[in-house]
UniProtKB/TrEMBL annotation:
<feature type="domain" description="YbaK/aminoacyl-tRNA synthetase-associated">
    <location>
        <begin position="29"/>
        <end position="156"/>
    </location>
</feature>
<protein>
    <recommendedName>
        <fullName>YbaK/aminoacyl-tRNA synthetase-associated domain-containing protein</fullName>
    </recommendedName>
</protein>
<dbReference type="InterPro" id="IPR040285">
    <property type="entry name" value="ProX/PRXD1"/>
</dbReference>
<dbReference type="Pfam" id="PF04073">
    <property type="entry name" value="tRNA_edit"/>
</dbReference>
<dbReference type="GO" id="GO:0006399">
    <property type="term" value="P:tRNA metabolic process"/>
</dbReference>
<dbReference type="InterPro" id="IPR007214">
    <property type="entry name" value="YbaK/aa-tRNA-synth-assoc-dom"/>
</dbReference>
<dbReference type="InterPro" id="IPR036754">
    <property type="entry name" value="YbaK/aa-tRNA-synt-asso_dom_sf"/>
</dbReference>
<feature type="region of interest" description="Disordered">
    <location>
        <begin position="185"/>
        <end position="219"/>
    </location>
</feature>
<comment type="similarity">
    <text>Belongs to the PRORSD1 family.</text>
</comment>
Amino acid sequence: MTDMDAAQTRESLLALLKDNGIDAVTYEHPKVLTVEEGAKHVGHLEGGHSKNLLLKDKKNRLILVSALTSTKVDMKVLSQRLGLGKSGLRMAPEDIMQAVLKVPLGCVTPFALLNQSARSVILFLDEGFKSKAQVFFHPLTNDATTAISPSGLEKFLGLIGREPVYINVEEVVVVGKEQPPDLAGYLVDATGDNKEQPATKTPPVQGNKPGLSQGATTPANITGATAKLKSKSAPAQKTCADVQGTTLTILNELLSTIQKEVTSQNQGQEIAAVLSKPLRQHLEPELESLLMAFKNTAYTEGFVAGMASRSASK
C-alpha cells in the first residue's frame, strides 16, 4: 500500500499470509461482538479459540493480551506483574483502539499489529496457544474468523518484525525484593514511536526527570517554585522502597514551596491553600506511578545483574 498510515484490510492480511506460504482458513459468519456470540458460529471447530483485550496503563502504553477463551485474565495480577501496582491497567477506550489498531469494536486481534500505527503495542500471547493445532482470530473484521497454526502465527509476527512473547496469563507472581515483576522489562523496552499515540512513548529510566503530565493546568510560577525546591537541602533520608511514603514526602515539599511562592506574591494564603488541593489530587497518583515504575525497574535490573554475575562466576 502506498499510504503506510492507511488501515490494513482483511483482504490485504489474507493476501500477506498466502504470499508467504502461511496456511490459514477463514470462516464466514454474521458480525459478532463477544466471545459468546462467536462461539455460536465457530465454537464447534477444534483448536484454541481466543479472547483479545487491549489494555492501557497510566502512561498510555498499550498492551494486547491474546488468550484462550478458557483462560482467566486478572487485570490486577497482570498489572502487578508489569510493575504497575494493582490498579495500573484498564481497558483501552474505543477511540484509542480504533486509532491504533484500526479495527472497530469486537475486532481486537493480533493480526491488527500489521498496521503501522500499532507498532508500539506490546503483545502477550497465552502459552496455551502453543499446544493447539490451530488458533482462531478475527481477520480485522468481526464477520469472519481465521484459523492459523501457532507456527503460522509466529511466522506472521516475524514478517512484521515481532518476536512472539508467550506468558502464563494465569500465573500469580508475588512481587517483592526477592521477586521483581516478571513482565516489567517489556514496558521498559517498548519503543513507543507511534505517531498517532505520542503518549505511548516510554522515556528512558536513566536521566528521566519526573514532570507534570502534558496539558496539566499549572500556575505560571511553578517553574520557579520547582527551582527553589531543588536548591533546598534534601529532606531526611527515606527508603525508596516505601513508594507511598516517598511520594508524600516529595509532594509535601513541592506543594509547600509552591504555596510559599504564591503567598509571597501577595496572592493571599486562601488562594494558595485552594491551589494546593487540585495539584495534590493530580500529582499524587502520577508521582506514585512514576516512583513505582522506577522501583520495579531497579528491582528487575538488579535481579538480572545478579543472575548474570552468578552465571559468570560458575
